[in-house]
Structure formats: structure tokens, C-alpha cells
Design brief:
Layout lengths: L1 E11 L7 E6 L8 E4 L3 E8 L7 E4 L25 E7 L4 E7 L10 E7 L10 E10 L4 H9 L13 E4 L2 E2 L6 E2 L5 E8 L5 E5 L5 E6 L2 E8 L1 E4 L4 E7 L8 E8 L12 E8 L37 E12 L4 E5 L11 H7 L16 E4 L4 E8 L5 E5 L4 E8 L14 E2 L6 E2 L1 E4 L3 E8 L4 E7 L2 H5 L3 E6 L1 H7 L4 H8 L26 E4 L2
Parallel strand pairs: 1-4, 3-8, 9-13, 12-20, 21-24, 23-32
Antiparallel strand pairs: 1-2, 4-6, 5-7, 7-8, 9-10, 10-11, 13-18, 14-17, 14-19, 15-16, 15-18, 19-20, 21-22, 21-33, 24-30, 25-29, 25-31, 26-27, 26-28, 26-30, 31-32
The protein binds copper (II) ion.
Length: 526
């Protein structure tokens, strides 16, 4: 399939705030979803009509053998310069629910995002008659750049009064989304995609039974739940069997919220109600709506359909999230005290050009937070979050097994009840975006069997800007022998005067002349 996007500004009123400058494709927002089948190839041509560089990431695709197509600007490529174009080629090997989004200057937050659905070729391991796609987005009265500026300024209130957004469902005001039509007795697969920059979305369908069968492009054993709670960048598929008669219509509930945004009547949380129509004109049934929190889907309760047991750990890495005021005068986030900043040469190009030195984490510069992984070793990440904020962390190139949550013991404040340790009781479910709840740790595992350069980052875009990012350099020796960047990708750099070889500063050895020094922590908040 060939898809062409002319990426440009779209001035649009999507939420009754008046006109806001968004970023769309071919002059429209929302961008239409892309729907394909395993075995297809998607050629996505991106022409850049913005006045900044742009790039596209296929969120959830592992890019096995094609790390350079991952689309993370200044990590695996140079951004596409204004006026230029580039064609991404994705060979679709995974079935599931994914999304395509901008990965340069956080353009996803201004609308450059759309679902990517990949159907199984042949029989799906999950049987259903029809499917329904629901995408969730947040939308604000300011552009992302303006909201980020306010959040980084320690003199401005947090959360920002502009931080309460509006909700879009399938790209339109969540109160105006087209009804879903159900036919009696049919089985529906609802694909739920949260493409937000900041907000969580809860989805429930009172009067019907819902079973989770997929999270983040990974099939799970079916689990009956009351509803799903979807963090930014996460996806769920749920199966719903329609009632056997069409005497009544029903309503679904969507609650948009962020736990760190104080409750404000009508604004936070925001409730959207949508219609499930069995028969035009039939009465709506008041289905008993109960909120049994024990029956909301939790990834620790889910089991992978492929029955892969928990991987035996070769190396465990501890990562602690924090936030501080830095010598730049900004609020910044950090893993293990390192706040991320982009290198001057894309990290992948450093790996590919530095020979044996690519094994030395120092060549990636002090702020890439590079961690070199050995080919095929099983990595466990123990991610501690001693903050009151929670973070949805996304790993590129992999889905990880979710094996355990527990309290970050030394950090739990006196007025907070420490959660108990919870482990997966069988084969763990896999996903690519995990929430690290406040005052908790999460343990995840993955096998480093996909040579490449892969980011781990918070998918709340403001926290990405604030530096909650690190870079895995996976199997650099294998990568050097097996992957070659297409010349037209390297040209994206040379057009902008960016070096495509050398260390993080584009120099040889450990000479970082030209790379800004790492800022220092002035006031540690967490
Ligand atoms: Cu975050």
C-alpha cells in the first residue's frame, strides 16, 4: 500500500476553543487511519510542508532488521527538512493495533497521529465478526510548544491552567462521535487506541460483557473486565458480544482524566457518552453502571496468548525516575540523575560508524544515557517512581513482559499507603508501553534479540521534553554487520549540515567539542 502525507499546519477548531494551529496531513485533521494485513508493505511518503523538521514513528512495530526506519528524530535518523520528502517502508510482520505518529518536535501532540491496524493474514487467533476502531486524543487551547514552555518554567503553576484539555474520539469532539451500530448476536472486536499527549481514557460499556484479547499489539488470553483504563500510547482490543435482540439501544462511557490534574466540575475528569445502536428509534436502556475497580483491566492480571514463560533474567538494571530544577533554570526529569538531551549526530549513526568504540557508552555523550546491551541477553528493568506523577514508559523495538509491581519502599511518603507487591501469576502479558504508578516500581523483561538503537521514554510528551528518556544500544557488533542505512536517509542529514559519522558530537573518539555541557541539578524535587 502506498500512502502519501503532505505534513503541514492545519488551523482548526476541534474542541470549541476557537482556531488552534494543528499539524495534519494533506490539509486535514484527523489523519485517516491506515489499515493493512500482515505480509503487506506500507510505503509512507512524507513531504514536509512545516517550517521545522519532521519524522514518523510506527509505534509498536519492532523494525527487526530495519532499526533505521524507526523514525525517532536524532536517534535513528535526521528529521526530514522543510520542503523535502522521504518514504518510510514498513514490512508488516506483526498483527495488532498500532499507531503512526510524529517523532520530531512532538508534532504528534498537535495532531500528527493516526491508528495503524494490522490484521492477521488468514485465520486470526481471536475470532470475531466485525471490528470497530475508537481512537482517543487530547486537544488543547494552545499548541504543544506553548504548553511545554509553561511546564518547564519553575515559576509557573503546576499543573498549568491550560493543562486541562478536551477529548476527541475518532478525531472529533468526543460528544459528537458517530454511533456504533451493533447487530444482534454478532461478536465485535473494539480496538481502542489512546494517542494522547497527556490524558488517560477509561472505556466501559454498561450492559455488555467485555473481554480483553490484545494489549499493545500482543494477544492475551481472554480476560473478562468491566472496562479498560488506557494510558497515553497504549492500545487494547476487547471482544463484545451483542445481545440477541434489538429491542434496546445502549451507551458507552468514556472518562478522560489525568490523576495529577485536580478535579474541576465538568472539566476534569471529562465524561463522554456515546451510543450503541441496535435499532434506530429503540429506547435506550439504563444499564446498571457500576464501577467495580477490581474488574478494570490490569496488565499484571493478563497472560500472553503465546504462553511464553517469564524469561530467565541475565542482567537487571535499576532505573529511578526523578525531577529537579537544573542550572538551565528549568524543571527537568531524569532517570538515575541523567536528564536526556539530543546528540548532534543521530545515535544510530554513531553506533554504525564508531567500530569497536560503539561498545563504549561514553561515545554517545553524557546526556544520551546510552546503555549497551549484549546480543540475546535477557534484560530486566526495575523502574522506580518515587514521584507523585505517574509515567507511561514506551520502549521502541520490543514488547516487554510485565512481571511485577510493588512499592518504592524508601520513597513512599508517610501519608501514602504502600501498595503490596503484585506478581503475574502465570505467563506474563507483553506490551510496549507500561505505566509506572506513583510511589511504585514495575519490573519488565525483554530479550535483546533485535539489534538496533531503541529509546525508552515517557510518552507524556512534556516529560519527554523534560528529559525522561534513555537509549539502548542493542548488539552494536551485530548491528554494524547486518544493517546499512539507505543513502537517501543520510542525505536528510547532509542537507542540514549534520554529520552522519562519529560520536554524539560528530567527532572522533571522546572529543565532544560542540556538544553543550550537561546541566547540573540546582534543586532536587524528587
Ligand atoms: Cu512521564
Amino acid at each position: 500500500m502506498i500512502v502519501s502525507w503532505d505534513v503541514g499546519y492545519v488551523d482548526i477548531d476541534r474542541a470549541g476553543y476557537g482556531i488552534v494551529r494543528g499539524i495534519g496531513a494533506n490539509g486535514v485533521l484527523p489523519i485517516p487511519p491506515v489499515i493493512l494485513t500482515v505480509g503487506d508493505t506500507l510505503a509512507l511518503t512524507v513531504h514536509n510542508s512545516l517550517n521545522l523538521t519532521t519524522s514518523i514513528h510506527a509505534h509498536g512495530l519492532f523494525q527487526r532488521g530495519t532499526s533505521y526506519m524507526d523514525g525517532a528524530a536524532m536517534i535513528t535518523q535526521c528529521g526530514i527538512p522543510p520542503g523535502s520528502q522521504f518514504t518510510y517502508e514498513y514490512e508488516l510482520k506483526q498483527a495488532g493495533t498500532f499507531w503512526l505518529h510524529g517523532h520530531d518536535h512532538h508534532q504528534n501532540s498537535d495532531g500528527l497521529r493516526t491508528p495503524l491496524v494490522v490484521h492477521d493474514r488468514g485465520q486470526s487467533p481471536v475470532a470475531y465478526d466485525e471490528e470497530v476502531l475508537l481512537s482517543f486524543e487530547d486537544w488543547y487551547s494552545e499548541t504543544f510548544a506553548e504548553r511545554a514552555r509553561l511546564t518547564l518554567d519553575p515559576t509557573k503553576p503546576f499543573p498549568s491552567p491550560h493543562g486541562i484539555g478536551f477529548g476527541l474520539i475518532n478525531g472529533v469532539n468526543g460528544n459528537l462521535t458517530k454511533p456504533i451500530n451493533f447487530q444482534p448476536g454478532r461478536m465485535y472486536r473494539l480496538r481502542l487506541v489512546n494517542m494522547s499527549a497527556t490524558m488517560w481514557f477509561q472505556f466501559s460499556l454498561p450492559g455488555h460483557t467485555m473481554r480483553v484479547v490484545e494489549i499493545d499489539g500482543e494477544y492475551t488470553e481472554p480476560l473478562e473486565v468491566y472496562g479498560v483504563d488506557i494510558a497515553p500510547a497504549q492500545r487494547y482490543s476487547v471482544l463484545v458480544t451483542a445481545h440477541s435482540t434489538n429491542s434496546f439501544n445502549y451507551r458507552y462511557n468514556v472518562t478522560m482524566y489525568a490523576s495529577f490534574i485536580p478535579a474541576e466540575s465538568g472539566l476534569s475528569p471529562r465524561i463522554f457518552i456515546g451510543d450503541i445502536i441496535y435499532q434506530q428509534g429503540a429506547p435506550f436502556i439504563q444499564a446498571s453502571s457500576y464501577d467495580d475497580s477490581s474488574r478494570w483491566a490490569k496488565d499484571i492480571d493478563l497472560h500472553a496468548l503465546d504462553q511464553e514463560p517469564a524469561l530467565p533474567v541475565d542482567r537487571s538494571l535499576e532505573l529511578t525516575i526523578g525531577r529537579s530544577v537544573y542550572s538551565t533554570g528549568q524543571n527537568l526529569d531524569h532517570f538515575n540523575n541523567i536528564t536526556y538531551a539530543f546528540p548532534l549526530t543521530p545515535t544510530l549513526y554513531t553506533t554504525l560508524s564508531m567500530g569497536d568504540m560503539a561498545m563504549d557508552e561514553r561515545v554517545y555523550g553524557p546526556q544520551a544515557h546510552a546503555i549497551v546491551l549484549k546480543h540475546n541477553e535477557v534484560i530486566e528493568l526495575v523502574i522506580h517512581n518515587p514521584e507523585s506523577l505517574l509515567h507511561p514508559l514506551h520502549l521502541h523495538g520490543h514488547a516487554f513482559q510485565i512481571t511485577e509491581y510493588g512499592p518504592t519502599k524508601p520513597f513512599v511518603p508517610n501519608n501514602v499507603t504502600a501498595v503490596p507487591v503484585v506478581k503475574n501469576s502465570g505467563v506474563p502479558a507483553k506490551r510496549d508501553t507500561v505505566v509506572v504508578p506513583s510511589y511504585q516500581y514495575v519490573k519488565v523483561r525483554f530479550r535483546a534479540d533485535n539489534p538496533g538503537v531503541w529509546m525508552l521514554h515517557c510518552h507524556m510528551d512534556i516529560h519527554f521534553v523534560m528529559g525522561l528518556v534513555l537509549t539502548f544500544i542493542e548488539a552494536p557488533g551485530v548491528l554494524q554487520k547486518t544493517q546499512k542505512v539507505p543513502p537517501e536517509m543520510l542525505e536528510l542529514c547532509t542537507k542540514q549540515g549534520i554529520k552522519t559519522t562519529g560520536n554524539a558530537a560528530g567527532n572522533q573518539g571522546l572529543n565532544f567539542t560542540g556538544l553543550p555541557p550537561m546541566p547540573t541539578i540546582v534543586l532536587r524535587k524528587v
